[in-house]
Amino acid sequence: MSFDVEIVLPTRAQIGEGALWDAARQRLLWIDVANAKVFLYDPATGSNQAFDTGTQVGTVVLRRQGGTGPAGAAMIATENGIAELDLSTGRITPWINPEAGSTINRFNDGKCDPAGRFWVGTMRNDFRLPTANLWCLYPDGHVERKLSDLTCSNGIVWTSDTRTMYYIDTPTHQVWAFDYDLATGNISNRRTAVEVPHEMGGPDGMAIDVEDKIWVALWGGGRVVRFDPQTGKTMLEIPVPGARCVTSCAFGGAALDELYITTAAGGTKPAEQPHAGHLLRVRVPVRGAPTHAFAG
Questions:
Q1: CATH code for the domain defined by 6-283
Q2: Its pTM surpasses 0.85
Q3: Residue 141: count of CB within 10 angstroms of its CB
Q4: What is the average pLDDT score of the chain?
C-alpha cells in the first residue's frame, strides 16, 4: 500500500509535537516544544494561530469548559507545570506543578482518558537515568503519580471498551499495556504489547483507531507504523519523506480518516531533510477514534 503524504504547513518547527484533533470545531492543535508555541490550525482557512507559552511546552489537550470566547480552552504542560490556555486570548493560568523544583525533568507528552482525566508524563532532560514520572490530573484538581522510574514519557491511548491503556516510555522501545479502571483511573497488570525494533526508530507519540490498533510515530525512523497490540505485529507503515524525526500523529478531518503528522527540524539541514519540522497529512484506510477533553 502506498501513501501520498502532503505538506500542510512548511513550518520547520524545532520539535513539532502533540498533534490533537478538535472534532467539534474541525481544527488541529499542535506544538513546537523548543520554541514554546501552541498552534491552532484551521484546515478550512489554512490559518495557523500561534500562542507563546513562555517556556518549553510538552503537550496540549482540550478542556471541556473554560475560555473567554468561542475558541474555548486547552490544558498545557510546560516546564512550570500544568496550566490552562485560553484559546481566545492566549492567557495562561497556572494550575499545579507536581514536580516543582525539579531541575532534571520537564513535562512531555500526555492525553486525556475517556473519563476526562489529564494524563501527562515527564522526561529526563539528559536521558541518562530513569527519574521521570507519569502523572494524572483528576477533574477535581488533585494529581496522582501513576508510574515512576521512567526516562522519556510519551504516547498514551485507551481502547474503545475503556479496559486497556497503552503507554510508551521511549528508551524502552516498547509499547506497554495496562488494565485500566474507568471509574477510578487505576492501572495494573503491566505487560509488553509491542517491541519496536531499534532499527525502526524510537517510539514517540501515538494514536489509536476504531479497530483498537495503535499508530506510533517513530523518532529517527522517518515513519508512522500501525501495530496490532494483540499480536505485536506490524500492520502497515507510512514512510515520511524528508523527515527522519517523526514525533506524533493524530486522526483528523470530518471522517477522522486523515492522519496529521508532526516532525522535528532541530539539528537537521534542509538540504538533507527538507520536510523536517513540517506539519504533514495523509489519508488512511481506517478511521481514528475520537480524542477526549479534560473534564475539570
A1: 2.120.10.30
A2: yes
A3: 9
A4: 97
